[in-house]
Amino acid sequence: MRLRFAWRYLRAGRSTQAVQVIAWVSVLAITVGTASLIVILSAFNGFEGLVRSLYGSYYAQIRIEPAAGRVLRMRAGLSDTLRRHPAVKAFCTVAEQKGMLRSGEYQVFVLVKGVDPTYPEVSGLPAKVFRGRYATGSADRPFAVLGAGVENAVGVLSDRSLSTLTLYMPRSGVTDLSDPLAALSQDEVMPVGSFAIQPEFDNKLLVTDIGFVRRQMHLGDAEGSAVEVALRAGVDAEVVGRELSLLLGDGYRVLDRYAQNRNLYATIRMEKWAIYAIFSLILLVAAFNMVGALSMLVLEKRKDIQVLQAMGAEPRLVRGIFLTEGLLLTGIGMSIGMALAFVLCQLQLRYGIVPLEGRSFLIDHYPVDLRLADFVLVGGMALGIGTLAAWFPAAGAARQPLDLRN
Protein backbone atom coordinates (compact mmCIF):
# COMPACT_ATOMS: atom_id res chain seq x y z
CA MET A 1 0.00 0.00 0.00
CA ARG A 2 2.80 2.42 0.86
CA LEU A 3 4.50 1.77 -2.47
CA ARG A 4 1.22 2.28 -4.36
CA PHE A 5 0.59 5.63 -2.72
CA ALA A 6 4.20 6.72 -3.20
CA TRP A 7 4.13 5.73 -6.87
CA ARG A 8 0.86 7.63 -7.48
CA TYR A 9 2.33 10.74 -5.84
CA LEU A 10 5.45 10.41 -7.96
CA ARG A 11 3.55 10.10 -11.25
CA ALA A 12 0.73 12.52 -10.51
CA GLY A 13 0.96 16.12 -11.59
CA ARG A 14 1.60 18.65 -8.87
CA SER A 15 -0.49 21.73 -8.31
CA THR A 16 2.72 23.56 -7.54
CA GLN A 17 5.26 23.29 -10.37
CA ALA A 18 8.13 24.04 -8.00
CA VAL A 19 7.54 20.74 -6.16
CA GLN A 20 7.91 18.79 -9.41
CA VAL A 21 11.06 20.69 -10.40
CA ILE A 22 12.77 20.25 -7.03
CA ALA A 23 11.92 16.53 -6.97
CA TRP A 24 13.52 15.87 -10.35
CA VAL A 25 16.48 18.10 -9.55
CA SER A 26 17.14 15.86 -6.54
CA VAL A 27 16.90 12.80 -8.82
CA LEU A 28 19.37 14.43 -11.22
CA ALA A 29 21.78 15.23 -8.38
CA ILE A 30 21.65 11.64 -7.15
CA THR A 31 22.24 10.41 -10.71
CA VAL A 32 25.29 12.64 -11.16
CA GLY A 33 26.67 11.81 -7.73
CA THR A 34 26.26 8.06 -8.14
CA ALA A 35 27.74 8.01 -11.64
CA SER A 36 30.66 10.25 -10.63
CA LEU A 37 31.54 8.13 -7.62
CA ILE A 38 31.52 4.85 -9.54
CA VAL A 39 33.53 6.28 -12.43
CA ILE A 40 36.12 7.81 -10.10
CA LEU A 41 36.45 4.61 -8.06
CA SER A 42 36.76 2.58 -11.27
CA ALA A 43 39.53 4.88 -12.51
CA PHE A 44 41.43 4.45 -9.25
CA ASN A 45 40.92 0.69 -9.53
CA GLY A 46 42.37 0.84 -13.04
CA PHE A 47 45.45 2.79 -11.92
CA GLU A 48 45.93 0.47 -8.94
CA GLY A 49 45.76 -2.55 -11.25
CA LEU A 50 48.24 -0.92 -13.64
CA VAL A 51 50.67 -0.18 -10.80
CA ARG A 52 50.31 -3.73 -9.50
CA SER A 53 51.06 -5.17 -12.94
CA LEU A 54 54.11 -2.93 -13.40
CA TYR A 55 55.52 -3.63 -9.95
CA GLY A 56 54.58 -7.30 -10.26
CA SER A 57 56.96 -7.57 -13.21
CA TYR A 58 59.83 -6.92 -10.84
CA TYR A 59 58.78 -7.70 -7.27
CA ALA A 60 58.39 -11.38 -6.40
CA GLN A 61 55.17 -12.67 -4.85
CA ILE A 62 57.11 -13.53 -1.69
CA ARG A 63 60.49 -12.18 -0.60
CA ILE A 64 62.41 -13.67 2.31
CA GLU A 65 65.04 -11.46 3.97
CA PRO A 66 67.23 -11.86 7.07
CA ALA A 67 65.61 -10.44 10.18
CA ALA A 68 68.93 -8.83 11.15
CA GLY A 69 71.84 -7.79 8.98
CA ARG A 70 72.10 -7.71 5.20
CA VAL A 71 73.36 -11.22 4.45
CA LEU A 72 71.01 -14.19 4.16
CA ARG A 73 72.51 -17.66 4.50
CA MET A 74 70.73 -20.40 2.59
CA ARG A 75 70.60 -22.99 5.33
CA ALA A 76 69.29 -26.45 4.54
CA GLY A 77 66.17 -25.79 6.61
CA LEU A 78 65.21 -22.79 4.47
CA SER A 79 65.70 -24.62 1.16
CA ASP A 80 63.89 -27.74 2.36
CA THR A 81 60.94 -25.73 3.68
CA LEU A 82 60.49 -23.98 0.34
CA ARG A 83 60.85 -27.18 -1.68
CA ARG A 84 58.30 -29.05 0.44
CA HIS A 85 55.67 -26.31 0.61
CA PRO A 86 52.83 -27.18 -1.82
CA ALA A 87 52.17 -23.53 -2.75
CA VAL A 88 55.75 -22.74 -3.77
CA LYS A 89 56.38 -23.04 -7.50
CA ALA A 90 60.02 -21.87 -7.62
CA PHE A 91 62.50 -19.79 -5.64
CA CYS A 92 65.64 -17.87 -6.47
CA THR A 93 68.51 -16.58 -4.34
CA VAL A 94 69.50 -12.99 -5.13
CA ALA A 95 72.44 -10.84 -4.06
CA GLU A 96 72.00 -7.06 -4.28
CA GLN A 97 74.53 -4.27 -3.90
CA LYS A 98 74.84 -0.69 -5.07
CA GLY A 99 77.57 0.08 -7.56
CA MET A 100 78.73 2.38 -10.32
CA LEU A 101 78.77 1.47 -14.01
CA ARG A 102 81.18 3.26 -16.33
CA SER A 103 81.66 3.35 -20.08
CA GLY A 104 84.40 5.78 -21.09
CA GLU A 105 83.38 9.19 -19.87
CA TYR A 106 79.82 8.07 -19.08
CA GLN A 107 78.93 6.70 -15.67
CA VAL A 108 75.82 5.99 -13.63
CA PHE A 109 75.05 4.60 -10.17
CA VAL A 110 73.16 1.32 -10.32
CA LEU A 111 71.62 -1.35 -8.14
CA VAL A 112 73.41 -4.56 -9.08
CA LYS A 113 71.19 -7.61 -8.72
CA GLY A 114 72.83 -11.00 -8.99
CA VAL A 115 70.40 -13.84 -9.72
CA ASP A 116 70.63 -17.58 -10.19
CA PRO A 117 69.29 -19.53 -13.23
CA THR A 118 65.78 -19.90 -11.76
CA TYR A 119 65.14 -16.14 -11.84
CA PRO A 120 62.93 -16.26 -15.01
CA GLU A 121 60.56 -18.59 -13.14
CA VAL A 122 60.23 -16.11 -10.27
CA SER A 123 60.20 -12.68 -11.94
CA GLY A 124 58.53 -11.17 -14.97
CA LEU A 125 61.57 -8.99 -15.68
CA PRO A 126 63.10 -11.32 -18.33
CA ALA A 127 59.90 -11.02 -20.36
CA LYS A 128 60.32 -7.21 -20.41
CA VAL A 129 63.60 -7.35 -22.38
CA PHE A 130 62.96 -5.38 -25.56
CA ARG A 131 66.49 -5.16 -26.96
CA GLY A 132 69.06 -7.93 -27.07
CA ARG A 133 68.40 -10.97 -24.90
CA TYR A 134 68.09 -12.02 -21.29
CA ALA A 135 71.29 -13.77 -20.15
CA THR A 136 73.35 -13.36 -16.98
CA GLY A 137 76.47 -15.29 -18.02
CA SER A 138 78.64 -16.89 -15.35
CA ALA A 139 80.85 -15.83 -12.45
CA ASP A 140 83.92 -15.74 -14.70
CA ARG A 141 82.21 -14.22 -17.74
CA PRO A 142 79.33 -12.08 -16.44
CA PHE A 143 76.70 -10.59 -18.73
CA ALA A 144 74.56 -7.58 -17.81
CA VAL A 145 70.91 -6.92 -18.56
CA LEU A 146 70.40 -3.19 -18.15
CA GLY A 147 67.39 -1.04 -17.47
CA ALA A 148 66.58 1.20 -20.44
CA GLY A 149 67.58 4.31 -18.46
CA VAL A 150 70.91 2.77 -17.40
CA GLU A 151 71.61 1.76 -20.99
CA ASN A 152 70.95 5.29 -22.16
CA ALA A 153 73.09 6.80 -19.36
CA VAL A 154 76.21 4.85 -20.37
CA GLY A 155 75.62 5.39 -24.09
CA VAL A 156 75.42 1.81 -25.35
CA LEU A 157 72.97 -0.33 -27.31
CA SER A 158 72.97 -3.71 -25.63
CA ASP A 159 72.23 -5.71 -28.78
CA ARG A 160 75.07 -4.04 -30.71
CA SER A 161 77.72 -3.42 -28.07
CA LEU A 162 80.94 -5.38 -28.52
CA SER A 163 82.74 -3.70 -25.64
CA THR A 164 82.52 -4.33 -21.92
CA LEU A 165 81.46 -1.95 -19.18
CA THR A 166 83.38 -1.37 -15.98
CA LEU A 167 81.47 -2.08 -12.78
CA TYR A 168 82.65 -0.79 -9.38
CA MET A 169 81.17 -2.25 -6.20
CA PRO A 170 82.00 -1.85 -2.49
CA ARG A 171 83.76 -4.83 -0.93
CA SER A 172 82.40 -6.41 2.22
CA GLY A 173 84.49 -6.74 5.35
CA VAL A 174 87.14 -4.10 4.48
CA THR A 175 88.42 -2.48 7.70
CA ASP A 176 91.55 -0.68 6.48
CA LEU A 177 90.39 2.59 4.94
CA SER A 178 93.84 4.07 4.37
CA ASP A 179 93.48 3.18 0.69
CA PRO A 180 89.91 4.06 -0.44
CA LEU A 181 90.32 2.14 -3.69
CA ALA A 182 90.92 -1.06 -1.69
CA ALA A 183 87.32 -0.83 -0.51
CA LEU A 184 86.08 -1.08 -4.11
CA SER A 185 86.02 -4.05 -6.45
CA GLN A 186 86.39 -3.49 -10.18
CA ASP A 187 85.45 -5.86 -12.97
CA GLU A 188 84.08 -5.96 -16.51
CA VAL A 189 80.57 -6.96 -17.58
CA MET A 190 79.22 -7.46 -21.09
CA PRO A 191 75.84 -5.77 -21.85
CA VAL A 192 73.62 -8.23 -23.72
CA GLY A 193 70.07 -6.89 -23.26
CA SER A 194 67.91 -4.09 -21.93
CA PHE A 195 64.46 -4.09 -20.35
CA ALA A 196 61.73 -1.54 -19.75
CA ILE A 197 59.27 -1.79 -16.86
CA GLN A 198 58.98 1.73 -15.47
CA PRO A 199 61.50 4.49 -14.68
CA GLU A 200 61.94 3.49 -11.02
CA PHE A 201 63.59 0.26 -12.19
CA ASP A 202 64.76 1.24 -15.67
CA ASN A 203 67.00 4.04 -14.36
CA LYS A 204 68.90 2.07 -11.73
CA LEU A 205 68.80 -1.70 -12.20
CA LEU A 206 71.48 -4.03 -13.58
CA VAL A 207 70.85 -7.80 -13.53
CA THR A 208 73.78 -10.21 -13.72
CA ASP A 209 75.02 -13.58 -12.45
CA ILE A 210 74.83 -14.19 -8.70
CA GLY A 211 78.21 -15.94 -8.60
CA PHE A 212 79.88 -12.82 -10.00
CA VAL A 213 78.17 -10.58 -7.41
CA ARG A 214 79.06 -12.95 -4.59
CA ARG A 215 82.68 -12.81 -5.60
CA GLN A 216 82.64 -9.02 -5.69
CA MET A 217 80.93 -8.84 -2.30
CA HIS A 218 83.11 -11.59 -0.76
CA LEU A 219 80.08 -13.75 0.00
CA GLY A 220 80.00 -17.52 0.33
CA ASP A 221 78.36 -19.88 -2.16
CA ALA A 222 75.25 -20.19 0.02
CA GLU A 223 74.91 -16.50 0.85
CA GLY A 224 72.91 -13.69 -0.67
CA SER A 225 70.66 -10.76 0.13
CA ALA A 226 67.25 -12.47 -0.10
CA VAL A 227 65.24 -15.32 -1.55
CA GLU A 228 62.47 -14.50 -4.01
CA VAL A 229 59.59 -16.96 -4.29
CA ALA A 230 57.00 -17.61 -7.00
CA LEU A 231 53.71 -19.25 -5.97
CA ARG A 232 51.41 -21.60 -7.81
CA ALA A 233 48.29 -20.18 -9.46
CA GLY A 234 45.26 -19.62 -7.28
CA VAL A 235 46.99 -19.38 -3.89
CA ASP A 236 46.78 -16.38 -1.58
CA ALA A 237 50.23 -14.82 -1.17
CA GLU A 238 49.32 -13.26 2.17
CA VAL A 239 48.24 -16.61 3.62
CA VAL A 240 51.32 -18.39 2.26
CA GLY A 241 53.51 -15.62 3.65
CA ARG A 242 52.10 -16.15 7.16
CA GLU A 243 52.62 -19.91 6.86
CA LEU A 244 56.24 -19.51 5.75
CA SER A 245 56.88 -16.98 8.50
CA LEU A 246 55.74 -19.52 11.12
CA LEU A 247 57.74 -22.34 9.53
CA LEU A 248 60.98 -20.36 9.18
CA GLY A 249 60.93 -18.71 12.60
CA ASP A 250 62.18 -15.37 13.86
CA GLY A 251 65.41 -15.35 11.85
CA TYR A 252 63.65 -14.30 8.64
CA ARG A 253 61.25 -11.64 7.42
CA VAL A 254 58.66 -12.86 4.92
CA LEU A 255 57.19 -10.09 2.75
CA ASP A 256 54.44 -10.26 0.15
CA ARG A 257 54.15 -7.64 -2.61
CA TYR A 258 52.04 -5.36 -0.44
CA ALA A 259 54.59 -5.48 2.39
CA GLN A 260 57.44 -4.80 -0.06
CA ASN A 261 55.63 -1.65 -1.28
CA ARG A 262 53.55 -0.72 1.75
CA ASN A 263 53.89 3.05 1.35
CA LEU A 264 52.92 2.97 -2.33
CA TYR A 265 49.78 0.88 -1.88
CA ALA A 266 48.77 2.78 1.27
CA THR A 267 49.03 6.07 -0.65
CA ILE A 268 46.90 4.76 -3.53
CA ARG A 269 44.19 3.58 -1.15
CA MET A 270 44.23 6.80 0.88
CA GLU A 271 43.83 8.89 -2.28
CA LYS A 272 40.98 6.66 -3.44
CA TRP A 273 38.99 7.06 -0.25
CA ALA A 274 39.74 10.78 0.01
CA ILE A 275 38.24 11.27 -3.45
CA TYR A 276 35.31 9.06 -2.42
CA ALA A 277 34.64 11.30 0.58
CA ILE A 278 34.85 14.49 -1.50
CA PHE A 279 32.49 13.27 -4.23
CA SER A 280 30.05 12.03 -1.59
CA LEU A 281 29.24 15.70 -1.00
CA ILE A 282 27.29 15.63 -4.28
CA LEU A 283 24.93 13.10 -2.73
CA LEU A 284 24.61 15.25 0.37
CA VAL A 285 23.55 18.19 -1.81
CA ALA A 286 20.98 15.91 -3.41
CA ALA A 287 19.72 15.04 0.05
CA PHE A 288 19.02 18.71 0.83
CA ASN A 289 17.05 18.99 -2.41
CA MET A 290 15.06 15.90 -1.47
CA VAL A 291 14.24 17.29 1.97
CA GLY A 292 12.83 20.40 0.31
CA ALA A 293 10.88 18.45 -2.31
CA LEU A 294 9.30 16.09 0.21
CA SER A 295 8.52 18.89 2.66
CA MET A 296 6.64 20.76 -0.06
CA LEU A 297 4.90 17.53 -1.09
CA VAL A 298 3.73 17.03 2.49
CA LEU A 299 2.23 20.53 2.49
CA GLU A 300 0.56 19.87 -0.87
CA LYS A 301 -0.90 16.54 0.23
CA ARG A 302 -2.03 17.75 3.64
CA LYS A 303 -5.71 17.10 2.87
CA ASP A 304 -4.90 13.60 1.60
CA ILE A 305 -3.08 12.90 4.84
CA GLN A 306 -6.07 14.05 6.89
CA VAL A 307 -8.42 11.87 4.83
CA LEU A 308 -6.18 8.86 5.47
CA GLN A 309 -6.13 9.67 9.18
CA ALA A 310 -9.91 9.95 9.22
CA MET A 311 -10.12 6.50 7.61
CA GLY A 312 -8.05 5.08 10.45
CA ALA A 313 -4.53 5.23 9.02
CA GLU A 314 -1.91 5.12 11.74
CA PRO A 315 0.99 7.61 11.80
CA ARG A 316 3.29 4.75 10.88
CA LEU A 317 1.47 4.27 7.54
CA VAL A 318 1.60 7.99 6.71
CA ARG A 319 5.28 8.14 7.58
CA GLY A 320 5.94 5.04 5.48
CA ILE A 321 4.26 6.53 2.40
CA PHE A 322 6.49 9.59 2.30
CA LEU A 323 9.56 7.61 3.32
CA THR A 324 8.87 5.30 0.37
CA GLU A 325 8.48 8.35 -1.85
CA GLY A 326 11.97 9.46 -0.88
CA LEU A 327 13.38 6.01 -1.50
CA LEU A 328 11.72 5.96 -4.93
CA LEU A 329 13.39 9.23 -5.86
CA THR A 330 16.72 7.91 -4.55
CA GLY A 331 16.32 4.56 -6.30
CA ILE A 332 15.52 6.14 -9.66
CA GLY A 333 18.50 8.48 -9.49
CA MET A 334 20.80 5.73 -8.21
CA SER A 335 19.75 3.26 -10.92
CA ILE A 336 20.20 5.77 -13.72
CA GLY A 337 23.57 6.82 -12.27
CA MET A 338 24.82 3.22 -12.07
CA ALA A 339 23.71 2.49 -15.62
CA LEU A 340 25.35 5.69 -16.85
CA ALA A 341 28.60 4.86 -15.03
CA PHE A 342 28.60 1.34 -16.49
CA VAL A 343 28.12 2.65 -20.03
CA LEU A 344 30.82 5.33 -19.65
CA CYS A 345 33.33 2.83 -18.26
CA GLN A 346 32.60 0.35 -21.04
CA LEU A 347 33.13 3.08 -23.64
CA GLN A 348 36.42 3.99 -21.96
CA LEU A 349 37.52 0.37 -21.95
CA ARG A 350 36.66 -0.18 -25.61
CA TYR A 351 37.49 3.15 -27.20
CA GLY A 352 39.63 5.11 -24.70
CA ILE A 353 37.43 8.20 -25.02
CA VAL A 354 39.29 10.08 -22.24
CA PRO A 355 43.01 10.21 -23.16
CA LEU A 356 45.96 10.76 -20.83
CA GLU A 357 47.88 13.97 -21.34
CA GLY A 358 51.35 13.55 -22.81
CA ARG A 359 52.89 10.71 -24.77
CA SER A 360 55.43 9.32 -22.32
CA PHE A 361 53.15 7.03 -20.32
CA LEU A 362 52.74 3.30 -20.95
CA ILE A 363 49.10 3.73 -21.95
CA ASP A 364 47.38 6.53 -23.84
CA HIS A 365 44.04 6.60 -22.00
CA TYR A 366 42.73 6.41 -18.44
CA PRO A 367 42.45 2.80 -17.24
CA VAL A 368 39.21 1.74 -15.55
CA ASP A 369 38.24 -1.38 -13.66
CA LEU A 370 34.58 -1.92 -12.77
CA ARG A 371 34.07 -3.80 -9.51
CA LEU A 372 30.84 -5.06 -8.01
CA ALA A 373 31.99 -3.95 -4.55
CA ASP A 374 32.03 -0.31 -5.71
CA PHE A 375 28.45 -0.55 -6.98
CA VAL A 376 27.35 -2.06 -3.66
CA LEU A 377 29.25 0.56 -1.64
CA VAL A 378 27.96 3.55 -3.60
CA GLY A 379 24.43 2.15 -3.79
CA GLY A 380 24.35 1.51 -0.05
CA MET A 381 25.56 5.01 0.70
CA ALA A 382 23.03 6.58 -1.70
CA LEU A 383 20.16 4.63 -0.12
CA GLY A 384 21.39 5.53 3.35
CA ILE A 385 21.54 9.25 2.55
CA GLY A 386 18.15 9.08 0.78
CA THR A 387 16.54 7.35 3.76
CA LEU A 388 17.95 9.91 6.17
CA ALA A 389 16.84 12.81 3.99
CA ALA A 390 13.31 11.42 3.60
CA TRP A 391 12.89 10.59 7.28
CA PHE A 392 12.39 14.15 8.55
CA PRO A 393 9.62 15.20 6.10
CA ALA A 394 7.99 11.77 6.53
CA ALA A 395 8.05 12.12 10.31
CA GLY A 396 6.51 15.59 9.97
CA ALA A 397 3.74 14.17 7.79
CA ALA A 398 2.95 11.54 10.42
CA ARG A 399 2.54 14.28 13.05
CA GLN A 400 -0.04 16.23 11.02
CA PRO A 401 -3.11 16.94 13.20
CA LEU A 402 -6.47 15.53 12.12
CA ASP A 403 -8.57 18.55 11.00
CA LEU A 404 -11.20 18.15 8.28
CA ARG A 405 -12.88 21.53 8.66
CA ASN A 406 -11.06 22.85 5.59
Task: Give a verbal description of the structure.
- By secondary structure, the chain is of the alpha+beta class.
- It folds into two domains: about 1-55 and about 265-400, no CATH class; about 60-260, no CATH class.
- Helices cover about 50% and strands about 20% of the residues.
- The protein has 13 helices and twelve strands.
- The strands form two sheets. It has a six-stranded mixed barrel with strand order 3-4-9-6-8-7. Strands 2-10 form a two-stranded antiparallel ribbon.
- The model has no long low-confidence stretch (mean pLDDT about 85).
**Low-pLDDT stretches:** none
Terminus-to-terminus distance: 26 Å
Question: Using DSSP, what is the number of strands?
Answer: 12
Count of the separate structural domains: 2
Which strand order does the major sheet show?
3-4-9-6-8-7
SSE string = HHEEHEEHEEHEEHEHEEHEHHHHH
Decide which structural class fits the backbone: alpha+beta
Shape: elongated
**Mean pLDDT, as a whole number?**
84
Largest sheet: 6 strands, mixed, barrel
Count of helical regions: 13
Task: Provide the gyration radius in Å.
Answer: 32 Å
Beta content: 15-25%
Measured as a percent range, the helix fraction is 40-55%
